[in-house]
Design goal:
single chain; 393 residues; alpha/beta; Aspartate Aminotransferase, domain 2; Aspartate Aminotransferase, domain 1; 2 domains; seven-stranded mixed beta sheet; five-stranded mixed beta sheet; 15 helices; 14% strand; binds pyridoxal-5'-phosphate
């Protein structure tokens, strides 16, 4: 069935699913490492790309393929490449696009390991970088050099919740011949479609919203241009960071309810954010759905919803933030995000502890900042949990 013209929710449920000989209602787990060729000719044709069909699971597998095609349709891209983790996706994108002497311009308040990979590893091979506040396009304009080969955006960014104008930055980058890559993990394709806004490549840690059940680590990359998709797949295959069929099966199950989960979680998030904003012990709240978010107008243009990630800070900075962690009971104290369960963490002492304080502050991560990923529980229970915890801090 051609699902390309159907609505987002219909694609979520049906896109990419192949028909098999048994009429399976869901794509089964093809738990096999390799695939038999009916003849030497067919084997040769598959290797040469003259015939469709699978060869070896690191290169491709029907269960993984179903997920890749599903997400590619949700992002309005040409094709998808699934990876073992979100960081696997980041690595494939960097390796495919950055060569020795290349320069990268990236959002400063980016997912920590995405930045660490460049600063600590790619720099060893002569890759240069500028981490800037991409929420102000003038910073991007000033950072682009003749050897800039990629503009890498994360919007909303983790955990500062800074928003970048993807359309405007894409136009600017393209004037300089630079492809634009967007980490769309925080928004999910349900709320933001970077390729429609002008970006060239979008990727996700499917560990988060797309799978949504905190039981899988995985990644996926989608590009607009089929030739770029091929280039990315070739890189994934030689790096060996393929997704596994069982992982793909679970993610395909998760994606079917993506918009239901996102809608419920963001409804909760709005109520939690407003409650926090009115609390006397709360210093500030950063949620893209609040009028107080400095880029609320841009968010309304660029996203179709506000999502469920909130950052806030209590009076009392670092100690208050850390203390809160030990007093919440319903929210799980854990890193990761985007699942059905509410998670809370303290970036300065946890996810972003490896960054220097100066780098953290430059990226908008103050010492007291608390990251709260709102789940699909009853919001009254979430608020009651925060209320008793904040009272003890
Ligand atoms: C979690 C995350 C990643 C990395 O994904 P993994 O699946 O943990 O490897 C990348 N970007 C963002 C924004 C993330 O939240």
């Amino acid at each position: 069935m051609d699902t390309k013209k159907l609505g987002f929710n219909t694609k979520m449920v049906h896109a990419g699913a192949p028909k098999d000989m048994y009429g399976s209602a869901v794509t089964p787990i093809y738990q096999t490492s390799t695939f038999a060729f009916d003849s030497a000719q067919i084997g040769a044709d598959r290797f040469a790309g003259r015939a469709d069909g699978f060869i070896y699971t690191r290169i491709g597998n029907p269960t993984i393929r179903a997920l890749e095609q599903n997400i590619a349709e949700l992002e309005n891209g040409a094709d998808g490449v699934a990876t073992a983790s979100g960081m696997g996706a980041v690595t494939v994108v960097y390796m495919a696009l950055l060569s020795q002497g290349a320069h990268l311009v990236s959002t400063g308040s980016v997912y920590g390991p995405s930045r660490g990979l460049i600063e600590k590893q790619f720099s060893r091979f002569g890759v240069q970088y500028s981490y800037v506040d991409t929420s102000d396009i003038e910073n991007v304009r000033a950072a682009i050099r003749p050897n800039t080969k990629m503009v890498y955006l994360e919007s909303p960014s983790n955990p500062a919740m800074l928003v970048t104008d993807i359309r405007a930055v894409s136009e600017l980058a393209h004037q300089h011949g630079c492809p634009v890559v967007v980490d769309n993990t925080f928004a999910s394709p349900c709320l933001q479609k970077p390729l429609d806004l002008g970006a060239d490549i979008v990727f996700h840690s499917v560990t988060k919203f797309i799978n949504g059940h905190a039981d899988v680590v995985g990644g996926i990359i989608v590009a607009k241009d089929p030739a770029v998709c091929k280039q990315l797949r070739a890189m994934m295959v030689v790096l060996g960071c393929n997704m596994d069929p069982h992982q793909a099966f679970l993610v395909s199950r998760g994606v079917k309810t993506l918009s239901l989960r996102v809608e419920r979680a963001q409804e909760n998030a709005m109520k939690v954010a407003r409650w926090l904003e009115a609390h006397p012990k709360v210093e500030w709240v950063r949620y893209v759905g609040l009028e107080s978010h400095p880029q609320h107008e841009l968010v309304k243009r660029q996203m179709t919803g506000f999502g469920s990630m909130i950052s806030f800070e209590l009076n009392g900075g670092y100690e208050a933030g850390r203390n809160l962690m030990d007093n919440v009971h319903l929210a799980t104290l854990a890193v990761s995000l985007g699942g059905v369960e509410t998670l809370i963490e303290h970036p300065a002492s946890m996810t972003h502890a490896s960054m220097s304080q100066a780098d953290r502050l430059e990226a908008g991560i103050t010492d007291g900042l608390v990251r709260y990923s709102v789940g699909i529980e009853d919001v009254e229970d979430l608020i009651a949990d925060l209320e008793q915890a904040i009272a003890k801090v």
